[in-house]
Design brief:
The protein contains twelve helices and 16 strands. The chain has 376 residues and is of the alpha/beta class.
């Protein structure tokens, strides 16, 4: 995770040094900072913009630094978080020309040079600024300042819920409607293909009620991996005043087996046909999975790269460990050491991320075999 700290006085710079040292001492980003990549080590840049420290003061204009840290042009350039040590006014003026949308903006924090307050200024939920504020406040014994309404009221936040559980939230207008309903004290109606029991940051009993598939048109939130669940299209009058916010559950795993030398085109046709016939939303696919002897299969790798779908492989021993009634092939057993690749790979991947459920059993598409499982 890349964090850029910028200070405008010598005192602020020394505080920045202390924050950097303590964060690096933590080695890895704490898991509860859910809006930021928690599986990476800290990458912290510390900058001074003050005449009191001419030997280390950054010669670049503040606008130039902001453009660089907000940029998504070169890999590794964009900052996950920007921390200003100085006045809120400086921070607001610096970031104002570069703010895009809460789904894109980095977390922005402001800390006074005395280290009394840590303010979550921008991207409190999706960007993880609120959690980062709480974390740094503890590090330096400061008072966290968080102003998002759901946090103040201790209420359910749908964007936090989506981010925490890996759901795709694409309609921010409807997300605002959900937030408004929560703050009015009205109970949400939720339909979900995924078990709510193990989800993080889920609504409390008094905040939501579940509806069945027969009542899905009454749902304010629809959590699904399927391509179509709601029968009505916008713009229409939504029945029962239902909000109908779609959260795509990115928990689907597509298992693949293929003949040696399979082409990218064969993989693409098989994959697209499989998902379409099964009614599975393509954006719900978390990974394409197979056995490790296929890890260098060029056709699969090229398809994976172009579609930006992770390709993960497992050993035969790992695939044999998953329980289930899978199709068996003596030929596949003789070649790979396991009687079935695609079904077992999909089920194994899903089992590592929840309770697996096979949606599509082994399907043969010429040189490609596919199966689909979901972590429910």
């Amino acid at each position: 995770m890349r964090v850029e700290i910028i200070a405008f006085t010598e005192k602020g710079y020394r505080l920045g040094e202390s924050i950097k040292e303590r964060c690096l001492g933590a080695e890895r980003l704490p898991r509860d900072i859910f809006g930021l990549p928690g599986d990476r080590t800290w990458d912290i840049g510390l900058h001074a913009k003050t005449k009191a420290l001419p030997e280390i003061s950054d010669p670049r204009e503040l606008s130039e630094l902001m453009a660089l840290w907000y940029s998504s042009g070169k890999e590794g350039e964009k900052a996950s978080a920007i921390i200003f040590i100085g006045s809120t006014g400086i921070a607001v003026r610096a970031i104002a020309p570069f703010i895009k949308h809460k789904s894109e903006d980095p977390a922005v924090l402001v800390i006074d040079e005395a280290g009394h307050f840590v303010i979550s200024l921008l991207s409190g939920h999706l960007g993880g600024a609120n959690e980062l504020t709480l974390f740094i406040s503890k590090l330096i014994s400061a008072e966290p300042v968080i102003t998002t309404a759901s946090d103040i009221e201790g209420a359910f936040s749908v964007d936090v819920f989506a981010k925490e559980n890996g759901f795709i939230l694409s309609d921010f207008g409807k997300a605002k409607e959900v937030a408004a309903k929560v703050l009015r004290g009205e109970k949400l109606r939720i339909y979900s293909d995924i078990s709510m029991e193990n989800l993080r940051k889920r609504p409390g009993i008094g905040e939501a009620e579940m509806v069945s598939s027969k009542e899905i048109d009454k749902a304010d939130i629809v959590i699904s991996y399927r391509s179509k669940l709601l029968d009505y299209e916008e713009p229409v009058i939504r029945p029962f005043n239902a909000i109908g916010l779609r959260l795509t559950a990115k928990r689907v795993y597509v298992g693949i087996g293929a003949r040696k030398g399979v082409s990218e085109e064969d993989v693409m046709k098989a994959y697209d046909n499989c998902l379409k016939s099964a009614g599975i939303e393509p954006s719900a696919v978390a990974a394409l999975v197979s056995i490790d002897i296929k890890k260098n299969e060029q056709g699969i790798l090229t398809f994976s790269y172009k579609r930006e779908i992770p390709f993960i492989t497992y050993s035969a021993e790992e695939l044999r460990s998953v329980d289930g009634d899978f199709a068996a092939s003596a030929f596949v057993q003789s070649v790979t050491g396991v009687s079935n690749v695609c079904e077992r790979a999909a089920a194994y991947a899903a089992s590592k991320n929840g309770q697996e459920k096979v949606l599509v059993n082994k399907q043969i598409y010429g040189n490609v075999t596919l199966a689909v499982a979901v972590a429910v």
